[in-house]
Design brief:
By secondary structure, the chain is mainly alpha-helical. The chain contains 6 helices and no strands. Helix 3 (57-70) packs across helix 4. It is elongated, with a radius of gyration of 20 Å.
Length: 113
């Protein structure tokens, strides 16, 4: 196989990999936009005053991360902060991320209780 043929084959494989990755992103986006079907989670979201048209898998994932952060899961708190555009300081990222998430989620506690 000549060098140019190998380069061409590599380019084709690279294109396939890019398309596969893009289609995985599109699939994830599609799935997260589908309505939530677990009645308990739907009811929990509605109790938290989420607009019924916003009750989808994406909102359910966010609710799950918020619940985990409130229970002390520093990684979940960090993900939430990153989603909100906040960055945790590097000295003690777990404690600071959890503290910042608690501040941001403070209003949610009253809606849940």
């Amino acid at each position: 196989m000549e060098l140019s043929e190998m380069g061409k084959a590599g380019g084709i494989a690279s294109g396939k990999a890019r398309r596969r990755k893009r289609s995985m992103k599109e699939a994830a986006d599609y799935y997260l936009s589908l309505p939530e079907t677990d009645r308990r989670r739907v009811n929990a979201l509605l109790r938290d005053e989420v607009d019924p048209e916003d009750v989808d898998n994406q909102m359910s994932v966010v609710m799950g991360m918020a619940e985990a952060a409130k229970r002390g899961d520093a990684r979940a708190a960090g993900v939430l902060l990153k989603m909100l555009g906040e960055e945790a300081p590097q000295e003690d990222p777990g404690a600071d991320a959890l503290e910042n998430a608690c501040k941001l989620l403070g209003g949610i506690d009253s809606a849940i209780d």
